[in-house]
Amino acid sequence: MNKVFLIGNLTRDPELSETNSGVSVCHFGLAVNRGYSSQDAERQVDFFNVTAWRGTADSVARFCKKGSKVAVTGSIQIRNYEDNAGQKRTAVDIIANEVEFLTTKNAASDDDFASAAPAPKKKPVLEAFDDDSDIPF
After folding, report:
1. Within 10 Å of residue 4's Cβ, how many Cβ atoms?
2. Which uninterrupted H or E stretch holds 115?
3. Rounded to two decimals, what is the model's pTM?
């Protein structure tokens, strides 16, 4: 089973694009704190490249920006490539199945969340019900 759960902050604004067939794809960086500090009490951080597809990609691009806190559920994908100098390299990517937004509306500096959220519904007014008829049981 290849499954990963990460909670961290975006290291850059999401980059949304489309494939030739029109499928949305979004790339972003994620900084995840380790559960411990080094000997000099410096917090250790891991950096991941994350790819989201389709509706998840559209949502991330619309609602997230550099610094946004998110929870990512997905899988690890390893790819091999050759750099410009001809060196063989290996990259580890996270393919996001789900992205949950953890930054609150109040923490967002712009009004993207407010404009996308539906208006709160008014609670119905309850009226007193006075029925003096006999109860049939």
Report:
1. 14
2. helix 112-116
3. 0.71
Q: CB under 8 Å to 15, separation ≥6 — which residues?
A: 26, 27, 28, 61
Cβ neighbours for 3, distance < 8 A, ≥ 6 positions apart: 73, 74, 75
Chain centroid offset of residue 45 CA: 18
- Closest Cα to residue 70, out of 79, 57, 60, 81? 60
What is the residue-wise DSSP string for 35-57? EEE-TTSPEEEEEEEEEEEHHHH
Over residues 16-50, the pLDDT tens digits come to: 999 999 999 999 999 999 887 667 777 889 999 99
AA letter at 135: I
**Per-residue model confidence as pLDDT tens digits over 113-125:** 444 545 455 556 6
What is the b/e burial string over 78-90, where b = at least 16 CB atoms within 10 angstroms of the residue's CB?
eeeeeeeeeeeee
